[in-house]
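Collaborator request log, item 7. Partner lab (contact: R.S.) asked for a structural prediction of LacI family transcriptional regulator to inform their binding assays.
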Amino acid sequence: MAARKATLRDVAAAAGVSTAAASFALRGKEGVSPETRARVLEVARELSYEVNLPARSLRTSRYGAIGLHLPEGASRATYYTEFAFGVVDAAEERGLSVILLPHLDAGQHPIAFVDGFIVVDATASDPGVRAMLADGRPVVSGEHVESAERAVTASVVSDHDAAMHRLLDHLAAQGAARIGVLLPPETTAWGRQVASAYAAWSASHGRDPVAVRIGFVPTVAEVEAAADAVLSDPVVDALVVVPSGSAAPALSAALRAGRVVGEDLLLAAYVDEPVHTLLSPAVTAFDLNAREFGGECLRLLVEALAGDAGGSGPVIRMTVPSLVVRESSTRRARP
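Returned to partner:
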């Protein structure tokens, strides 16, 4: 196996300086002392550090910064926090900055001092996203941009159709006969794909769908009310909660309904979160690899800015979510 190449972060850590200071020193820019510059250069030689040419191109001929656009309410969802950290980590390794963009109203223009944009779970109905797509700078999306898939430069997407089928097959194999779901709005490609996969699986297995839609980042009360509605059907013996942050409220609803999760009710979330391992029982979910997902978006944007993306249409890279099976979806015998 080839040895991992040293990154800018490695050089900075070994020299005892920030990545920004290391970048300044390696580029011969003002802002660091001669002693610091000499130390960084010496460490770079020792580590056989090679300058990332695409990133160097950004820093010298452009702004050296990218704009990150997250959905409204993203600060309440762990997935988007992890995604953002993945973007920032990958950018820092390349000596680039990340600017979190505000949401724009119709007629406003995206911030000027960035070289390109990363969006996630975006829709062209968002004025800010529309402005970015029309701006001319590269746009890389995490998941397809609903209603504008061909307008982006590149996308990193998950195979949600295969993932949803796998989860439903798992629940059926555990004996679930009637599976209800709490679905997000179909305003994003992700929400539409998950809903379509659930409908297709239900039809192919001869089962009537039991679905209630809730917000993209729902409130606790909203999740509990929707779960109450689904669990009012005594035949429902499994529940999948798709929007982030829904598992704990769904567990509360099951308790109020007199259900025992893991016995007469199976429960699974679609988006895994650290809290799922702390709940009782621990909740089955998909690891969407949010940090790596965000990092891959940044790498695609750097390639696009360097002119290495290739092809006439959008570049698409597919990832496969990993199903993490826990106690909530494993049928236990009644005592």
